[in-house]
Design brief:
The complex is a heterodimer of chains A (110) and B (898). Chain A has 110 residues and is α+β, with helices and mostly antiparallel strands. Helix content of chain A is 61%, strand content 15%. Chain A has a single domain, classed as Winged helix-like DNA-binding domain superfamily/Winged helix DNA-binding domain (Arc Repressor Mutant, subunit A, Orthogonal Bundle), CATH 1.10.10.10. A 3-stranded antiparallel β-sheet of chain A has the order 1-3-2. Classes of the chains: A alpha+beta (110), B alpha+beta (898).
Chain lengths: 110, 898
Amino acid sequence: MGKKKNSLLQGAVELLILRALRDEDRHGWGIQQRIDQIGSEALSLKQGSLYPALIRLGDQDLIRSEWRITENGRKAKYYILTKSGRKRLEEEVEQWREFSRAMNLVIETA
Amino acid sequence: MKIVRKVSNRLKALFLNGKAESELDDEMQFHLEMEIEKNLERGMSPFEARRSARVSFGGMEQAKEDCRDAWGIRFLQDSYRNLRFGLRLCSRYLNTSILAVVVLSMGIGIASMMYTMSSKLLDTSSGADLDDRQLYIQWELGTAQGEPFSSHDFKVLRSEVDSLEDLAGIQNSGFWFSLPLKKDEGKQYKGVKVTANFFELVNAKPILGNSFSDQDAQSYEAREIVISDLVWADFFDRDKAVLEAEVMLNGDQCKIAGVMPTGFAFPRDQQIWMATDWREFDGKPRASAPKIGVTGKLKPGLGLDQARAELETIASNLAVAYPETNEERTRVRLTPYREQFVDDDAKAILYLGLFGSLLVLTFLSTNVFQIIMGRTAIRSHELAVRRSLGAKRSHVIWQVVVDGLALSGMGAIFGIGFAALGLRVISDQLSVFEMPWLHDFQLTPGVFLFAIGAALFAGIGSSIIPAWRASRMNSFSILKDDSRSSSSIYIGWLSKAMITFQVLFSSILLFLSVMLLWPSLFMDSLEMPYDKNTVLTAGMQLGADPQFEEPRDVERLYPRLKQKLMATPGVRAVALGSGKFGIMGDLRGIEIEGEEEDKGSSMRISQISTATPDFLDVYGLKPLSGRMINAFDSEESLTVCVVNSHFVDTHCKNVDPIGLRLKIEQGSNGYSEWITIVGVIPSLMPNLPGTKEEIDRLFSQILLPFAQHPLWNPTILLSAQNADNDRYRLAIRESVKELAPLVRFQGPILTIGEGLSFVSRMIDTISLGGKFLGGAILVISIIGLYSIIAFTTNQRRKEFGIRIAVGSNAWGVMKSVMRPWALTIGSGLILGFISVLSLLVGLHSFSVSNGGMEEDLRGYTPIFLTVAAIVGLATLIAMIIPARRAAKINPMDIIRAE
């Protein structure tokens, strides 16, 4: 069951990160907290797996990063959603909804 | 934009790797601390908060490895890091590194040399710019080789063909090149007579002066010639005033019209080009016309079939008009010029060369494999640490492979230097032949690419198995007990198989290299039954002179020529003969009166030569029985011949040959009339190795009277005390020029000794290659065997220390080192023997020799024994050093280390 969950989330982790950055710039830990906050236990993932995903999103120019000082005076790397990242998020969300609707329909009527 | 960002990120990660790593550390540390703080706020104890944060985060090192992968420079970074590590490893294990680099550089060097020579020998463009439309055209007679056109047929084809842009004729010729005031200080060059359109048709232009015009081909007074860069350098020091300089070519005055660029030697290895239209043969019998190579260029848009159809129509008309010469010549063979001289045999040579290179590379990879296996075993602790820290198997594999590539990279650098040096030695050796296609081996960009490919092949090939095994090691057991686990990577069937393979290949390659030495030893021991430096030979082409209507006309020339030559001080005898050096004849079928029909066809083959009555005087010999050809053997008298002692021993074992009659095969016209044997002469052939029966069969010879079988191309034979003195050559040239000014010589005028020495030099070069290859293989074998035996012996230090401590003597220890390998090496030698035997049996099936296989194989016994002794000695050297070292182990050192 655990393995299945992980493989399901692997494809969605980048979407979750983009979603977490939609309203606010966040550092890695902040993104993690936001995903935990808006999601549930079912969506929780190993925190370490967040960082390779952040690098991949940066490579695709969907997010960018900069070092800033946090509220409690610490230095942290913040991630910011780019214009193309925002556009990609909208597309992905729309696709996800359609897929989800279709899946629900199949599951409920089959 | 995305690509720009991606590339910029990669570059940043690559070049600012330290910064990126430190930022990644900071970022993850920040994450962890924030999580700990959150846990503390939730009321956890500091220990529990820290533990829980670490569990939620997952493996820190694993996450970092994943980030490095995501940067996409992981491969480059790892390679760079591994390369640096590999180089450090080289300095740490200097001995094995030097051994590996020596082995690799020799192997890559030898393979690159083999590749360079194969490619050069198969390059038939000789500096000309040929395209696929350039064709070589011959008669198609259904045989493996096509037949060149006669100059008569060429002229008809050239005037009538429409599908080709033009046709050029090419006739090989030897030229004695000299300056007008220094006629005796000339030099012999290979040259070619060509039609005036030759250079235009092969897209070549002189770097100085002009190529030919149609007037050049028609003018036989002070002819214009084009010379190669080599001749320009030899005689004029590349002085530009060479143009219009008057020079002597075969004693005729010529002018230099142009100089070709360096490397141009088209069609093969020619240095002098003379324009001609073969008009001197016009109106002469068609059979006397010279055979010439023909090349043409297909008109754009036309195919080979169209050109062939047109040429065959012209050929059919010729067959109707001249049935006596052209009846069977109605089909033509068209071959793209670039493929003409790269036939199946040549391709086989190329593939053989490449296969040989691959064999050498595989052989050296086996050696380097042993070395890398040993190094990997030593590094097993370090690799286990990496694995336990989260490195993937692929990373460990790549780390070991990069070690192999670092070694092979260094091997490639030295190997190219080694190849350059070797090629220079070979080029110098072969330069005496003045055939640029045979020497002048250069390191082209293709060779560098080959060397890089060879280095990759050897590097990856030799390290992939050690890498694979290293990646499958049990890290836990290695970290627990390093020495036992590290040896487990190494000792086993694989290493033994590799040793067997290595001894097997050493035996095969050494056998081949000793075989290359054999011809040289044979040439050194070659003896003729007369003094080979007392006979000078000069091949003539009578057809070039219009005074000779038919070959028989030479009888008018010969008495006067002999008289003139005999007048030269020192000349003892003069005769006319046929074939190479006047002694080697055409091999033809014969039929002997009364002989049974069911004898093997090879029994009825003999060399056929033609000679004048004074032939034996040249060699200072007398007939053994009967009589020699004499002046009464004329066209009108009984057709007779003499045979040599080999003929008698082959065909007339139990009968007196005198009075026997025989017939000689005459091509498609069946057999000649009966010819009566009137005498037996001694053998003029060298003492080749082989059974008497084989030698007799090979050198069986029938000598026909010149008066009854005149030739267009007889050979002058002149006997003198020091026949190699230039004054005799000059005497022949001057006499022939005076009596028949237009007669040409075929090739250089040489004594039989000089001719053999020419062959001998060629063979010596091959022999040098054999020594070189054999030496290299021997060194590589000793290094490879030594490296594995030394390593495994070192792994058993503890065991030997204990044995010595409990009373074992030095000899006992040495025996226990050598015994396990003796069986492996013995198996390799037996397999090598079987392989070589199979190779020889395979070759025997292609041989024309009728000798028994057992006899042939027995002849190889000395080579078998030599190779077995060399390989045995090499393995003994490889074993004895580690064995002695093991015998000298101090048990106290071992106990202390424990």
